[in-house]
Amino acid sequence: MNDTLAVIKPEYCIELERTYAFPIEAVWKALTFSNEISDWMGYEASLEQRIGGRIFVDFKSEGSMEGIVCEWEPYKVFAHTWNLSVVKWELQPDGESTHLRFTNSHAIPEIVVGFAAGWHAFIDHLGPHLAGDSVADRFDELMSVYENRYDQLSVACDS
């Protein structure tokens, strides 16, 4: 038998937490209504609000990303596939505010730094969006920070 063994690579998880001075209903709406997602992400998005529903974001010249909703519990949790990974948005009331716990699990090393910078930049837009404001995009700055901090991940991929 001349079969080669499977290559096993590590998977990574991105975690971000934020607290917003807005009720859970407002944060949930921003995360799950297509027009709201489009506004804070800055790209055309659509979401079918149900398990098995489709999420789609058109990143224009950078391509698009499509996934399937795999967890849906209104005002608590919303998860969907994203490329080969899984994105999860968990909300908890925190007094009159809302605590968001974001995870992007099962990210492969080759993309984890870009995903971390991208999600961080997108989530930076969520708070100002909730307040009726906007902020400049920081993706390039964050990409540099994440690349410098996690440059060893690319070394691990090449081994």
Question: How much beta, percentage-wise?
Answer: 25-35%
Structural class: alpha+beta
Q: Helix share of residues?
A: 25-40%
Put simply, the count of helices is: 5
Low-confidence stretches: 155-159
Distance between the termini: 26 Å
Q: State the major sheet.
A: 7 strands, antiparallel
* β-strand number: 7
Q: Can you list the strand order of the major beta sheet?
A: 1-7-6-5-4-3-2
Q: What's the pLDDT, averaged over the residues?
A: 92
Radius of gyration: 17 Å
SSE pattern, N- to C-terminal: EHHEEEEEEHHH
What coarse outline follows from CA principal-axis ratios? globular
List keywords for this structure.
seven-stranded antiparallel beta sheet, globular, disordered C terminus, 5 helices, 35% strand, 159 residues
Tell me the layout of helices and strands:
Layout: E1 12-20, H1 24-32, H2 34-41, E2 44-47, E3 54-58, E4 64-73, E5 77-82, E6 85-94, E7 97-107, H3 109-130, H4 139-149, H5 151-158
